[in-house]
Design brief:
Elements (H helix, E strand, L loop, with lengths): L19 H15 L16 H10 L18 E4 L29 E4 L1 H4 L2 E3 L8 E3 L22 H4 L16 E3 L6 E3 L4 H13 L5 H30 L4 H19 L9 H16 L7
Antiparallel strand pairs: 1-2, 3-4, 5-6
Helix pairs in contact: 6-7, 6-8
Length: 297
C-alpha cells in the first residue's frame, strides 16, 4: 500500500462542482433517506459509475489496487470502491441502525478509489498468520477509534470523524509511514508503536485483507527478485572496483554496473506492483552501499 496522488488526474466532469447530474442525484438521495419509510431501503446511485470516473481512477492508481498494489486489469475489470461505504456501515449492525451509510459521499470524488475484488468484497480467504479461511475484505466496514464521533448525516462535518478514522486513506496518508515488510516471507507489519497509529495499521491490514496468502506469496516473489538483482549490483560494483586501475576493464564493468543498477531501479517504476516493499528493500540497500537516499530523488 502506497500513497496515491489524487491531484495527478483531473476530476471527471460528471463529479465536478456544477455538475447538474451530480447535484440532482444528491438531492434525490437526501430526500430518499430523509423519508423514515425509505431510510433502510437502498437508493440507486448511478453518477459514480460513469465510465469517465473509472478511467480517471485507473489512471490515478496506475491500474493497480489502491489497497494491495496488485495489478488488476489483466484478470478483472476492477471495482469503483467507496472508501466510506454508501449503503451501510457494518460496525453498526448490532445497533440495528447500520443503514444508510455515507450516502452523501456516494459520488464524491475524494471518496472513490480503484480496487480489486479481494480487498473490496467479502470472500473466504486464509491469511499468512491464520491458516483457517475466514470471510474478509472491506465491503461495508469503516471502523473508528471512537464511535462517538461517527458522522451519519450530510448536514454534519465529516472532519469531525477524520480524527478518529482507523482505515488509512492512500490519498491522504502515506502508508509507507505505517507499514513495513518481512522480506523473507512477504508479511506486512505495523511500523508505528503508538497505540492509535499502530491500531490504524492493524485495522487497515485486517479490513483490506492485506495478509491474505496469495498476496503475501506475490510480495515474497517480488522480494526474491529484488534480492537477486541487488546481489547482481553488488557483484558488478565489486568487479568495477577490482579493475579501477585498468581503464579498459574498468570501463567495461562500469557499463555492466550501470545496466544492473538500471534493472534494479526498474522495480521502483510507479507502475510496478508492491512499490512499498520495493522502496523499503532498495532504499535500505542504496543507503548502506552507495549512501544514496532514494526518497530524496
Amino acid at each position: 500500500m502506497i500513497f496515491i496522488d489524487r491531484t495527478s488526474v483531473d476530476i471527471p466532469e460528471i463529479l465536478a462542482d456544477g455538475s447538474e447530474k451530480l447535484k440532482k442525484e444528491l438531492e434525490k438521495a437526501i430526500a430518499h433517506y430523509a423519508d423514515p419509510n425509505k431510510r433502510t431501503k437502498a437508493f440507486k446511485f448511478r453518477v459514480y459509475s460513469h465510465e469517465d470516473v473509472k478511467k480517471a481512477l485507473i489512471k490515478m492508481g496506475k491500474g493497480k489496487c489502491a489497497y494491495c498494489e496488485s495489478d488488476i486489469l489483466a484478470t478483472y475489470v476492477g471495482d469503483i470502491e467507496h472508501f466510506r461505504p454508501k449503503g451501510e456501515i457494518e460496525e453498526l449492525k448490532a445497533t440495528g441502525n447500520s443503514k444508510p451509510g455515507y450516502y452523501w459521499l456516494a459520488a464524491d470524488w475524494d471518496n472513490l478509489l480503484f480496487s480489486c475484488r479481494n480487498c473490496n468484497q467479502k470472500s473466504k480467504q486464509a491469511t499468512a498468520t491464520v491458516a483457517e479461511a475466514k470471510s474478509m475484505g472491506k465491503m461495508n466496514q469503516f471502523p473508528l477509534f471512537d464511535e462517538n464521533h461517527r458522522v451519519r448525516s450530510h448536514e454534519d462535518d465529516i472532519e469531525e470523524e477524520e480524527k478518529v478514522r482507523l482505515l488509512l486513506n492512500p490519498c491522504k496518508e502515506n502508508p509507507e509511514d505505517y507499514f513495513k515488510y518481512d522480506i523473507n516471507s512477504g508479511v506486512i507489519k505495523p511500523k508505528k508503536r503508538k497505540k492509535f497509529l499502530k491500531e490504524r495499521a492493524l485495522s487497515s491490514i485486517k479490513v483490506f485483507a492485506l495478509q491474505r496468502v496469495p498476496l503475501v506469496m506475490e510480495r515474497e516473489k517480488k522480494a526474491i527478485l529484488i534480492s537477486a538483482q541487488m546481489q547482481r549490483v553488488e557483484e558488478a560494483f565489486i568487479n568495477y572496483n577490482d579493475f579501477i586501475n585498468d581503464a579498459e576493464r574498468a570501463e567495461k564493468f562500469a557499463k555492466v554496473l550501470q545496466r544492473e543498477m538500471e534493472t534494479l531501479q526498474s522495480f521502483l517504476d510507479p507502475k510496478e506492483e508492491y512499490l512499498g516493499l520495493a522502496r523499503q528493500m532498495i532504499g535500505k540497500f542504496m543507503k548502506k552501499n552507495f549512501q544514496v537516499d532514494i526518497t530524496a530523488a
